[in-house]
Structures are given as C-alpha cells and as structure tokens.
Write a structure and sequence with these properties.
With 380 residues, the chain is of the alpha/beta class. The chain has 2 domains: 132 residues, Beta Barrel (Lyase, Ornithine Decarboxylase, Chain A, domain 1); 234 residues, Alanine racemase (TIM Barrel), CATH 3.20.20.10. It is built from 10 helices and 20 strands. The radius of gyration is 22 Å and the shape is elongated. It binds pyridoxal-5'-phosphate (PLP).
Length: 380
C-alpha cells in the first residue's frame, strides 16, 4: 500500500493512466467514531458497501469490531484483516455448506433466516445450540429510496411462528429488519421498531437482540439527507419501549461508514465541447449512479499535480467503455479549460463503488492508495 501526503503528491509521483482510489484513513476514523458514539447499540459494518482490504483495515483500526457479511468470502475477507473481528452471516441465502464452514472454521455465531424452509436448511448445516438465529422481518416505508422488503423478510404476522421455531431448534432467537438503503426519514426506523414491539409482545419468551439494519443516508450534491443525529435520536426514543426489559439494538450501516473516506481520481481521455470522457465510469466505480439515488459526486480538478482554478462550467461525464449507457446522469461544474490529460477527483464515493466495479471492455483499476495527512480532505 502506497501512502501519499495528499492527492497532489500522488499525482506528481504516479502520473496515473488508470483510476486511482484514495483512502483517507482520518476521514474513515472520524466517520466511524461518530457512528459508534451516536448509535445506541452495537455497530456492524455492512461489508457489501466496500470490501476493499485497506478500507476494512482502516475501519478495524477506527474501532469497528463487528461485521455484517453476506457470504463466506466476505467473512474470509474480514478474517484476513482481523482475527478478533466478529462476523455475522446476515444473508438468508447462502451457498450450500457456507453456514457450516462459517461456524466451524470461523466461529460465526449469528445467522439469519426469513422463512421456515430456510431455517430447516440452516439447522441441517450448523449446531443450532451454539447459534443466534435472527428472523428477518419485511418492513416497508415510503422514505426508503431502495426498498429491501420485496426480496427478503417474513411478514410481521408470520414472525412469532418463525421465532418460536428457531427457539424449538435450540438456537437463541433474535429479530432483524432492513428498512432499505438511503432511507430518507428517521420515521422509517420508528415505524419498524413499533412493528417489532408488537411482534415481540406476542412471544412467550424474551428477545435479547434486535438488528435494525442499515439505510442511513448521506448528503450528495443536489441530494440533501437529514443529519445522522436525527436518526440516532429517533431510534433511541423509539427503542425505549422495545428494550424496556433489557436487550440490545444492532445496526448494519454500510454507506454511512464507507462513503465519505474514499475518492476516485480519474483522467480525462477526450473532450468534446461540454462532454468529458473519463477513464472510469458506470461499469467501474460509478455503477451506483444507475440506481437513481444521487446523480453525481463532488469534484475538483488537477492539471498535472496542481489544483485547477478559474471559471467553471457544467459538463456531461462519460465512462470509457463502448456502451452508450456508460454516461453519468448528473452534470458537474469543472474548470472551463479542462482538457485531455487533466485529472478529476470525485469525493463521497466510498459506498457501492469498489465493491461492484467490473472489468467490462477491459477497463479495471486496482490501484488503491492512502492519503495520510490529516489536513488533506477529499471533495465533499
Ligand atoms: C442486509 C443489509 N444490511 C445492511 C445494508 C447496508 O445498507 P446501507 O449501505 O444503506 O447502510 C444492506 C444494503 O443493501 C443490506 O441489504
């Protein structure tokens, strides 16, 4: 891993022809510490948001000890970074044999199901008496930009039976839900916690762990999200009733922890009037833009290793592949004289970027560096 004091030093040294992804450890540290201090419970980082080894390492160093993993591979990626990290296998769908390997080889204790048949499959693979099994409940709220209740989750009415069956198998039953990703109102969590409270009232036993999932949004240019403190305050209030007899909340933030600390430095390959063609795009680190949440990231430009200043104008941005869909939806303001060979650094691009990039058309960069000066900040 190569360290640079700032992006200018990186550009001066590497003069890169391929995209370079810059990890700002101090930004990750601050983001993680704010979440750990504010969330009233246990914080599990959702590895799917960014599984880059450097990012995982930085999050571990920042105090993240628990990891929401969707596959055995993600569990192994976390294990490679930290032997003490606690991995939770929080996907109701797994490769056959994966749950057994997770429990036997990695000591994974926490699993999730959302259907009686899924539970039957899981308990054939693991020793249920050593496991906590979450029943995932489907919850829906209009403020979720990505609804995650259509694919996974049992209906609230079916939850008591599923939780009872988990207990009958000798595992500790627990409850999980995921309102969605980019959840634009804290009310979504309040509503889901209220539904959970009603489910738990029907049980003849107590539940110790309630996992309220991810979904905490970030503000991007042209896309304003409520501050994270509003979510923490609303969750804390709503959970008072839920946890009145003890118990613990868990959260699975992905975007909130991973988005601010990473930037992508790209190079301009072609300029046609107000259209810029870059060496990274919708098949690379920008793939999340196709989901119609935010439409652009904050930017700054460099010529050589010097930050560009001067009059700005708006540009359409395109990726390098042959696909005409490889076009970024939002226009961005950049220096009017920007040209071939100049660099553009995009900030706030740490979530759902590196973890989903492809090598379509042969464009793929694995160049990740760290920016270690605390005074260096990515575009925000
Ligand atoms: C089960 C689960 N947990 C956590 C997350 C993380 O969501 P976010 O990045 O919006 O916090 C997701 C996102 O898809 C998810 O499916």
């Amino acid at each position: 891993m190569t360290d640079f004091e700032n992006v200018s030093a990186m550009l001066g040294s590497l003069q890169p022809r391929e995209p370079v992804y810059c990890v700002y450890p101090h930004v990750y540290r601050k983001t993680a510490q704010e979440f750990l201090a504010g969330f009233p419970g246990r914080v599990l980082y959702a590895v799917k948001a960014n599984n880059d080894p450097t990012v995982l390492q930085v999050l571990v160093a920042a105090g993240i000890e628990h990891f929401d993993c969707a596959s055995l591979v993600e569990i192994e990626q976390v294990r490679d970074i930290s032997h003490d990290a606690v991995c939770y296998f929080m996907n109701p769908v797994r490769l056959i044999g994966a749950a057994r390997s997770a429990q036997e080889q990695h000591g994974v204790k926490h699993f999730v199901v959302d259907h009686v048949d899924g539970l039957a499959t899981l308990v054939k693979e693991i020793d249920a008496s050593r496991a906590v099994i979450f029943a995932r409940m489907a919850v829906h709220h209009k403020s979720a930009r990505w609804d995650l209740s259509t694919k996974f989750g049992a209906q609230p009415d079916d939850m008591p039976q599923l939780l009872q069956l988990i207990a009958d198998h000798g595992a500790e039953p627990a409850l999980a839900f995921n309102v969605g990703s980019v959840v634009m109102s804290p009310d979504a969590f309040v509503h889901s916690i209220e539904v959970t409270t009603k489910v738990l009232e029907q049980l003849p036993f107590q539940i110790r762990l309630v996992d309220i999932g991810g979904g905490y949004p970030k503000t991007y240019p042209g896309f304003e999200a409520p501050p994270i403190e509003d979510y923490f305050a609303a969750i804390r209030r709503a959970a008072q009733l839920l946890l009145k007899d003890g118990g613990e909340l868990l959260a699975e933030p992905g975007r909130a922890l991973s988005s601010p600390g990473l930037s992508a430095v790209t190079q301009v390959l072609l300029r046609k009037d107000d259209r810029l063609y870059l060496n990274d795009g919708m098949y690379g680190a920008f793939w999340e833009l196709r989901f119609d949440v935010q439409d652009r990231f904050p930017v700054r430009a460099f010529r050589g290793h010097t930050a560009m200043t001067g009059d700005a104008q708006s540009f359409h941005l395109y990726g390098p592949t042959c696909d005409s869909g490889d076009a970024m939806p939002g226009k961005v303001m950049l220096p009017a004289n920007i040209d071939v060979g100049d660099y553009i650094e995009f900030g706030l691009i740490g979530a759902y970027s590196l973890s989903g990039r492809t090598d379509f058309n042969g464009f793929y960069s694995d160049s990740v560096v760290t920016i270690d000066s605390a005074s260096a900040l990515p575009p925000a």
